[in-house]
Design goal:
The protein is of the alpha/beta class. It is built from 17 helices and 16 strands. It starts with 14 loop residues before the first helix and ends in a 13-residue tail after the last helix.
Length: 437
């Protein structure tokens, strides 16, 4: 049985990291951190199973930084690597680790598609010790000769099950074949299906397994609701839910449906934006920031973007299109009730979807509260906070598109707050703000 630590002070972390944790207001480890840190700091391979939002980033990030501190990377030869499935998650991990990396004098580089390849190559050549990357872009840089992984002593696979779902395992396998063979590997995943178990068997050496949450775990602070609605009532009910007070994520099955719903919500006076893989990375980053600061209140997202969304205080996720698999339901729901906060997951179900959704809930181990609703019902307002939208169309200007590329329809966001549509007409375009590197 492995040791579980009561506080960060008992871990043996670098003193500068303990000081940085205190400065960030973090005093006690989450369960996944308390369980894994003794083994990861000792250099053992770790297999962590836990729900997203359970504190995994610091669980692997703190030992990675502590064990790398004091070393300097040669140009293009990083010492530590974190592989993640999406651009948003890569940026989230980098943001979370940056204050701690600075505290121990380590340089981080983020390597993702959709942004300047040359800038990322320059960051690697400048000698970044820690690289947070999506598999495809890292392969590109290696093939160009901008990076080599033979000095990587610590490798982390975060959200390994989604990398499997997105078809990245062949690329991940090739990357793991290039890191230092005797190095430390840490793999974090909600489930071990989809080929993740094969990665574990091949690349992790006698791993210590910590399952703080079972693969289908939900937190007690999260409530689940199934709203049975007729097809004729669904659009109106959905608009009222999106107009609720606070921020809401609405999940759709395809990017085209997400764009269409965002346009419909804007026309009804709801400050909406769509987030999916069809957006450029600068657009996606800007849209998420607008959602965080409240200029966008209804974010219409697809599963591709699901795991990279981390917004503090988000209290409701709505499945407009019910997911087809239990783990997709859990990953969508993982955007709310993060790190002990409360939240609700609401799924809209048409009559013909009832049987499939009932089966999905049973697989996920969830017993939702079910109720039949119509627009204007007390039950709809009670469960979701639904309210009548203003009905005054709003336009949220799109961020500048890269040269030669058109804008993506539906719910794009720029630096300004939403404004009524009738005030937008005839207005000359504002000059671009200068970019800050």
């Amino acid at each position: 049985m492995t040791t579980v630590i009561p506080s960060f002070a008992h871990t043996g972390l670098a003193p500068a990291l303990l000081t940085a944790l205190t400065a960030q207001g973090i005093t006690e480890p989450f369960p996944i951190q308390s369980a894994t840190l003794p083994d990861s700091l000792a250099g053992r391979d770790v297999l962590g199973r836990g729900r997203t939002g359970s504190g995994k980033t610091l669980a692997f990030g703190l030992p990675l930084l502590s064990r790398t501190a004091g070393r300097k990377a040669r140009p293009g030869r990083p010492l530590a690597l974190v592989l993640v499935p999406t651009r948003e998650l890569a940026q989230q991990v980098t943001t979370a680790l940056s204050p701690y990396a600075r505290a121990v004098g380590l340089r981080c580089a983020t390597v993702v598609g959709g942004l300047s390849l040359q800038r990322q190559a320059d960051a690697l050549r400048a000698g970044a010790e820690v690289v947070v990357a999506t598999p495809g872009r890292l392969h590109d840089l290696i093939n160009r000769g901008d990076a080599r992984l033979d000095q990587v002593e610590i490798t982390v696979l975060d959200e390994a099950d989604q990398m499997a779902d997105m078809g990245f395992l062949p690329q991940v396998t090739k990357l793991l074949e290039q890191v230092a063979p005797q190095g430390q590997r840490m793999l974090f995943s909600a489930t071990l299906d989809g080929g993740v178990d094969r990665l574990v068997r091949r690349f992790l050496s006698n791993p210590v397994t910590h399952s703080v949450d079972p693969g289908t775990a939900t937190v007690t602070a999260m409530t689940h609701h199934v709203l049975h609605v007729d097809a004729v009532d669904k659009p109106d009910a959905l608009t009222r839910i999106a107009a609720r007070e606070g921020r809401t994520i609405l999940f759709m099955g395809t990017k085209h449906r997400a764009d269409r719903l965002a346009r419909q919500l804007l026309s009804k006076g709801v400050r909406a934006a769509a987030l999916h893989g069809g957006k450029s990375q600068p657009q996606r980053t800007r849209i998420l920031e607008q959602f965080r600061n409240g200029q966008v209140t209804a974010l219409v997202a697809t599963d591709v973007a699901a795991r990279g969304i981390h917004v503090d205080g988000l209290d409701m996720v709505v499945n407009v299109d019910p997911p087809t698999e239990a783990k997709d339901y859990l990953h969508r729901g993982g955007r709310t009730a993060r790190a002990g906060e409360s939240g609700s997951v609401v799924t809209l179900v048409l009559p013909e979807q009832r049987r499939d959704v009932s089966r999905l809930m049973a697989t996920a181990g969830i017993r939702p509260e079910s109720v039949q609703v119509r627009p204007g019902d007390e039950a709809l307002a009670r469960v979701t906070g639904a309210r009548e939208p203003s009905g005054v169309p709003v336009i949220i200007a799109a961020p500048p598109a890269p040269a030669g590329r058109g804008r993506t329809a539906g719910g794009s966001v720029a630096d300004g707050a939403a404004r009524p549509a009738h005030r937008a007409s005839g207005r000359s375009r504002r000059p671009r703000r200068p970019r800050i590197a």
